[in-house]
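Request: Give me one sample?
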Amino acid sequence: MGRLSALFDPETVAVVGATDREGAVGRAILENLRDGFDGEVVPVNPSRETVLGLECYEDATSAPPIDLAVVVVPPDIVIEAIRDVADAGTENVVVITAGFSETGGEGAERERRLREIAAERNLNVVGPNSLGIMATANGMNATFGPEDAREGSISFMSQSGAFITAVLDWANEQGIGFRDVVSLGNKTVLDETDFVREWGSDPNTDVVIGYLEDIDDGQDFLEAAREVTADTPIVLVKSGRTDAGAQAASSHTGAIAGSERAYEAGLEQAGVLRARSVQELFDSARALAGLPEPESDGVAVVTNAGGPGVLTTDAVGDSTLEMADFADGTFDRLAAAMPDEANVYNPIDAIGDADVERFGEALEIALEDPNVGSAVVVAAPTAVLSYDELAETVIEKLETHDTPVVTCLMGGERARDAEERLRESGIPNYFDPSRAVSGLDALARFRDIRERTIDEPATFDVDRERAREILARTKRRDDNRLGVESMDLLEAYGIPTPQGEIVDDPDRAREVAESIEGDVVMKIVSPDISHKSDIGGVRVGVSDADVADTYEDVVSRARNYQPDATIVGVQIQELLDLEASTETIVGMNRDPQFGPLVLFGLGGIFVEILEDTSVRVAPIGEGEAREMVDEIQAAPLLRGARGREPADVDGVVETIQRLSQLVTDFPSILELDINPLVAGPDGVQAIDLRLTVDPDDLDTTDP
């Protein structure tokens, strides 16, 4: 058990602010505890001698030793109450009271003081603005909700107290049980990461689920979740999508990789299964809490109804699973066991007059097939089929083969007793075949999470001091943007760049061009002009004789396009053979929660149009960098599609890793684009660069 075990297993719980006044929250919490908690309940209120028949104490220091204090006093005396329980030696506190940061400046100040005293006294504080917590193992309902939770092995956290009350009402009706339940409230001290760690170390929690609107520290959460999901699945509904991460983004990466992309990438890397709805959340949790992992993705479907069988097949096609391809011996056995009218291919249709014995025999044969990793039993009610007996048969087959089986016993009241019996054996029953498949899909996805390996990020030999000097140029500029004039930043981190130089007069332009073999590329250099090619600010294949005139032309076009733009100069650059190459983009946007979000995709002029990109939270290792390359739709171009010579994919993968190291080393880099990164058979070259830097952060956090 973890450091919060006493929070859920106290011997004595005090309700600070307990009252017998009808309709009061302090009364509701006291009643819930009094009626179910195995331990001692202690009311604390200086205005009462007894509350609901229990001896009441003036303050926590005069009460018996308190393991958990539930604070439900007016907001202006919460801090005083917490000091009192801390003085009494209590380390675990739940603050029900609202009126903190959610109410404005005065409340935010109150919350700051709460955080300070918690740190000073080493308190574990849930809330404030919390519904409370539950622990079913000891009957503790320290909430003001109307429902007690059933006992089970699912631990549940929510940022919304109302969500908890609604879910418990529904879950009790569905027979779904919980281990611990936490209303996170404002998360002033304890947050989602703390409970992920706690429940990950709890042998009695089989699944962690949650409803979250945000994650306070994405990097910390990612680290904790990766550790926990090695053994315990985490399933989350994440709401509250926001454009905050993309607001005022000046780079392509910033525009594409907003906060929602960060959550998608971060949760995926953390091994968290993300549910799209509350229904999917619990469909996944039920399967994960009671069933073994499938050994393969092949699904067998056994049914007595053709239509539902087809629906189940469609659902498998929409998932990460596949319909099992039966071995020849399986077809022979099914043909011998089933009527002539039956379908012995997958899905197995035992036809409408199938009884329990025929269902059981078909399921037995399917589970013995080496290509079957899981099975769905889909049954429509008939006069010859007993759901109760079918449930017993399914339980027997699962126990014999240790292969996950879910059921879809379609119907209403006649399925209830069978459903209850299946639930007792850890087998979820779903009315909708697609939900049954969703449960199996969660099992397979979690199996893949457990089996995957995460490479440690490589540490390349780089010139950090040179990089720092380049980033510090923003201190001497009117804004915090850097462009191609800072290409040596990439060189400091070992990212290849073409031969070239930025010049500020036509004569020097000619000299640089003559030092480069062949024709050159010329580009206007301005932090204020993003789309250089749109204004004629890029010229390709310029001969030495035309360099001076081209210099004057691109500068003139830039000034006409944007008179107030800062013109740094013109870049003279080696001309690369792009015919056999692919233009890609490697970039980074710093997300408020998860930190550096690295992006890779098809680059050049297509990046914003096609948005063919993949993202990861840095730092990343070689395996994740290679996955980023493989995930984009244009990956075949890099691999050598339609006779093209393959690009240096290893060079692309290394560049992604080097960029990951750069933006991890320097938190002051807010946004960065290498676009394009030209990937050809002979290697990669970074052609253009844009980045935004926080010069103040450069002083305080960077190495």
